[in-house]
Design brief:
Chain lengths: 738, 339
């Protein structure tokens, strides 16, 4: 019994749920105590090591970031209580947001009507899930797996992937970004929803019915509960919540694309399960879900603000260096030390660990040796719970003790700069040398961390940080995700960095948070991909979309001899920079190369093997295609491999990619050339520009800046120009190693 | 052996008088859908089946690409028949790929790479299996947790960097023709071996027994814990094998390789007729499910060349519709005997 089952499944309810007797009086479950301890533990730890963690502002920002996810998680709770699951919630969020945008902009309806219709459609979509689950008796896991794919697919199909709805009116944006007093506008909605679901689940007969159904659908039916209607209700509510969350998502980020809310369903389920709701159904609390939500939200936020105490950094680094070379060398290269900043991935890892602990605390062996050992089992449960509790408390105590130790040390070190006033400084510690000026912190964000291109940029950025003696904070989402980028920027504002430099996944979506950063006196740069011009000080422009589009199209025309057919392989139909490049490619083609025809654009999900498959499909379906233009970094080697394996010598590959991945193909002549800029220089220049902005060397209106080792750099308006994109060919590619 | 007849047909009331056709109804309808798709392609775009200059036809290439998915789907079928699920295989796949690549870069000979990668898969599977079977934790939550843990750890360690393989790694030094044949061959051998074992071996029947009624299986002398543990370990090993099959086609390994693999694999298994409630499903159905879903993408590409409406942006929606249609037909054929 390890999965949500159908409500019709005649499986006997396992005896190990063993909570029926506790149902009359709501007792506080051990799991909730553990959760509370976790929450407090996080607050204590992050207050110690996080910068500006313990501020009202930060609290409200966390609250704002939690609203959309919170709505999904709250609505997911009754679903899971009935023994079901709703994997389609995240996709439905995206679909309803897209529908709202479509009806508002394309159909010209008033925004409020469009939003209402979107919510109604989301309710209907939830009804579709309900219908399939209750009428056809298909397991919820499968139904919603299918509808997850269907809803996301519809959103992509409707917008053709590329459509982006933005420029919402002010009052609408206020809904997602404004404040009522100090409280984020949308926060009361979450509170209302929480109260509503609490009443539904814990103070109404419907809630009792839902628990009964989750405990035993058959039993509930015999008790006269309309099982189908009650179960259906939970999925419709989940749909409504997803619809409202979709509207709020659009207001919060100021833009919406078909990828909105991707992966939210898993985070919502994680919060619910972490909150003590049994995945088997029959038991669950709204309070637990809220705590689960905030455990995750605090963890994410705290890790972004955290700075590890230096002794810990040194200790761990030397520990890793002492490991055997084959293991340690994988983690850290010799002489390198682990950073004081915790990477965002750690939040995911810790969430997973917490999830395991949360269900571990609640565990009851399902392979019970003797079915009659019910009393025994209760006893065992208690033991395990006590053990887990003790471990948590011990751990928290150890961490607090360690934190205190460090705090005392760091206070001793920082005493002067923190509390120094001319008169009293002497009394603190006259022996210490005058305090150094505060080191500048430059926070730099790639579109995604898991991308070789940005790793290459990071090298240059780190070089610059070393040369200029500044702190470089490098963090961002693991996969390209505009909403996560905003989350990180919010945390950086709270943290109080000096410069924020962002490679924007969605320029319109991130503009308002960047404006907020500027309003707080933080210097804002964009690099790699720009945002709206008034949201940043300068854009470090490695190459304009036009520059890339023109170069790609010119290279294509050269390879094809100015005529014939070609196809594009892109990362995803929703990637904004590639959409911009495609536009420029098409403009250039129409203008200069009328005899060339672009036959199709295929997405490769940023995966080499998909690019390989797509290249094969294109070569088969369009036999006249003479050139594959692969414009994301895994696509170029994937497409080249497909051409190589097909044995066709009449098809060439060009694209945007990294030299190292493509060297073999360029040398064997399959790939004619790839286009890129000097990525290390891009990283270097960004950090340098940030430093110059803070120190006042670079001001608005300048027409050039000193690029250090890169040389003199031209500035056009507010664009710092790195230069033209570089074409790597057989002749020059071996000079580069990145 | 009451165990066997019960396990092969858990739908006791409906199974009376069922012949071959009704028992394999799902397999046959998926096969029919697959055949219809191929026929449509044959008439509208015969190029799908033609090979260019001594290389594979698109039809053959579809099978080459599907080979790793098939191997993972074989493992997932076992997991689902035993009434569990494993959503961590995408992360496992990425980890195994990077491990294979790291070993290859360190000039470990081919047998060492194979053993090392499969062992890594087995260890990850054993962790899942231990938590699920040993501690009785729900598999969907356990594997959700291991999915995010493994993915986070991999991103942390690799920072997204690709592994460039030595030239000798591709096809393990064989020619491309042989290599592609080997990929399909290995996948089909694994498929056949497990199909046979699931049908004819005691251990195979035990998987059905545990999936349809754990308590009854226990009373019949099967140890559910061991069976479930073994199933998860097999899932891990097969994920490792899938990662190897995938890696051997290329000269670089990307840590993002396994993203969303679990969805594709579960979808194929479900379309193939395995019941998520356990105890029911055949590997033949899974094979057909893999084949059908793997053909959708390329088929859309070929149709797109005819008509601008059949664009790649609809691929996901079509896949969702196929899943819903397949399970809905299941629900309808089950009738309303529970009302």
């Amino acid at each position: 019994m390890s999965m949500p089952t159908t409500h019709s499944a005649a499986a006997p309810p396992p005896a190990d749920r063993g909570v029926s007797h506790a149902r009359g009086a709501p007792v506080i479950r051990v799991q909730q105590v553990v959760l509370l301890a976790l929450l407090l533990g996080e607050i204590v730890i992050f207050s110690l090591i996080g910068r500006n963690f313990q501020t009202w502002n930060n609290l409200f920002e966390i609250l704002r970031l939690t609203v959309e996810l919170g709505l999904l998680a709250l609505a997911m709770t009754p679903v899971i209580v009935t023994g079901g699951i709703d994997l389609s919630a995240g996709s439905l969020l995206g679909l309803s947001a897209i529908l709202m945008g479509m009806m508002w902009r394309d159909a010209g309806l008033p925004l409020i009507v469009a939003a209402a219709i979107a919510v109604v459609i989301a309710a209907l979509a939830g009804g579709l899930n309900a219908l399939l689950i209750t009428r056809l008796r298909i397991p919820p896991l499968i139904v919603t797996l299918g509808s997850m794919s269907l809803f996301r697919g519809l959103a992509e199909g409707i917008t053709r992937g590329a459509g982006n709805y933005t420029d919402f009116p002010k009052w609408f944006i206020f809904l997602g970004q404004g404040h009522i007093g100090p409280v984020p506008t949308q926060a009361p909605l979450l509170v209302l929803a929480a109260i509503g679901f609490w009443v539904l689940l814990h103070r109404s007969t419907i809630g009792r019915a839902l628990c009964a159904i989750g405990y035993s659908p058959e039993g509930a039916r015999y008790a006269g509960i309309p099982v189908s209607r009650r179960v259906g209700l939970t999925y419709v509510l989940s749909g409504v919540a997803a619809g409202i969350a979709g509207v709020l998502y659009s207001a919060h980020w100021g833009q919406v694309k078909a990828d909105a809310g991707a992966g939210y369903e898993l985070e919502a389920i994680t919060a619910v399960v972490l909150g003590g709701t049994s995945i088997f159904g029959g038991r669950g609390t709204i309070l637990g879900t809220l705590m689960g939500l905030f455990v995750i939200a605090l963890l994410k936020n705290g890790l972004l603000l955290a700075e590890l105490p230096p002794p810990l950094v040194e200790g761990m680094s030397s520990l890793i260096h002492r490991l055997p070379q084959w293991l340690g060398g994988f983690l850290l290269s010799p002489g390198e030390s682990i950073g004081a900043h915790l990477p965002a991935e750690l939040a995911a890892i810790l969430t997973g660990v917490l999830l395991l602990i949360a269900i571990g605390v609640d565990f009851k062996p399902s392979f019970v040796k003797a079915p009659s050992a019910h009393g025994n089992e209760e006893f065992k449960m208690k033991n395990s719970q006590v053990a887990a509790l003790s471990v948590v408390i011990l751990l928290a105590a150890a961490i607090i003790a360690g934190g205190n130790f460090w705090l005392v040390r760091s206070i001793a070190e920082n005493a002067q700069p923190r509390w120094a006033s001319p008169g009293s400084a002497v009394s603190f510690d006259p022996g210490v040398a005058p305090p150094q000026a505060k080191r500048i912190t430059i926070a730099m964000m790639p579109k995604s961390k898991g991308n070789a291109y940005f790793i290459a940029c990071r090298k240059g950025a780190e070089q610059a940080a070393k040369d200029l003696n500044v702190d470089l904070l490098w963090d961002g989402p693991t996969d390209p995700d505009p909403a996560k980028q905003n989350e990180v920027v919010e945390a950086w504002i709270t943290r109080g960095v000096d410069v924020i430099a962002v490679a924007c996944e969605n320029g319109d979506g991130i503009a308002s948070v960047l404006r907020k950063a500027r309003a707080k006196g933080i210097k804002v740069l964009t690099w790699d991909a720009d945002t709206q011009a008034d949201a940043r000080d300068f854009f470090v422009n490695q190459a304009t979309p036009q520059g890339i589009g023109d170069t790609l199209m010119d290279n294509a025309a050269r390879v094809m001899g100015n005529k014939g057919e070609f196809a594009i392989i892109t990362a995803s139909l929703t990637a904004s920079n590639m959409i911009a490049w495609q536009k420029e490619i098409e403009l250039r083609r129409a203008e200069k190369y009328p005899d060339i025809k672009m036959v199709t654009i295929e997405p490769c999900d940023d995966k080499q093997q998909v690019a390989f498959d797509k290249a094969n499909t294109i070569m088969g379906a369009y036999p006249n295609v003479k050139l594959l233009m692969a414009i994301c970094s895994p696509a170029a080697p994937g497409a080249a491999e497909a051409v190589k394996q097909s044995g066709r010598t009449d098809v060439k590959v060009i694209g945007v990619s990294l030299p190292n991945d493509n060297k073999p193909y360029i040398h064997s002549g399959i790939t004619d050339d790839i286009v890129l800029w000097n990525t290390a220089d891009l990283g270097y220049l960004t950090v340098l520009a940030g430093y110059d902005l803070v120190t006042g060397k670079l001001k608005a209106g300048d027409t050039s800046m000193d690029g250090g080792k890169i040389g003199k750099i031209e500035i056009q308006g507010t664009s710092i120009l790195l230069g033209k994109p570089f074409t790597f060919t057989k002749e020059n590619i071996d000079l580069f190693d990145f | 052996m009451t165990l066997i007849s019960y396990a092969s047909a858990p739908d006791i009331p409906a199974v009376k008088g069922r012949g071959f056709i009704s028992r394999y109804l799902r397999e046959m309808s998926v096969a029919a859908a697959y055949a219809a798709l191929l026929l449509t392609l044959f008439f509208i775009r015969p190029a799908f089946f033609q090979s260019h200059a001594g290389s594979q036809s698109q039809f053959g290439l579809t099978w080459v690409s599907a080979a790793p998915i098939l191997v993972a789907a074989v493992g997932m079928t076992l997991v689902i028949i035993s009434r569990h699920i494993d959503i961590s295989i995408g992360s496992q796949f990425s980890v195994c790929g990077i491990i294979a690549g790291s070993l290859a870069v360190r000039h470990v000979p081919a047998p060492g790479i194979i053993v090392g990668t499969l062992a890594a898969g087995a260890i990850m599977g054993a962790i899942n299996g231990g938590l699920v079977a040993g501690m009785g934790l729900p598999s969907i939550v356990v594997t959700l947790a291991t999915m995010v843990i493994l993915r986070g750890a991999l991103t942390w360690i690799t920072q997204g960097a690709t592994v460039l393989l030595p030239a000798s790694f591709q096809w393990f030094g064989a020619s491309q023709r042989v290599g592609q044949g080997l990929m399909i061959g290995i996948a089909l051998v694994i498929f056949a071996a497990f199909a046979w074992a699931l049908r004819w071996l005691r251990a195979g029947r035990a998987v059905y027994a545990v999936g349809s009624d754990q308590e009854a299986a226990r009373l019949a002398g099967v140890r559910p814990g061991r069976v479930v543990f073994a199933v998860f370990v097999i899932m891990g090993v097969l994920t490792g094998a899938a990662a190897l099959l995938n890696a051997m086609q290329f000269i670089t390994i990307y840590p993002s390789a396994g993203k969303d693999l679990e969805l594709a694999v579960i979808a194929a298994v479900v379309v193939g007729g395995a019941a998520i409630t356990g105890g029911r499903g055949t590997l033949l159905g899974t094979l057909l499910g893999v084949a059908l879903l793997a053909t959708i993408g390329p088929a859309l590409g070929y149709f797109h060349a005819q008509s601008k409406w059949a664009g790649p942006e609809w691929a996901k929606a079509i896949q969702g519709l196929i899943i819903l249609f397949a399970v809905a037909s299941d629900g309808l054929s089950k009738g309303r005997r529970n009302e």
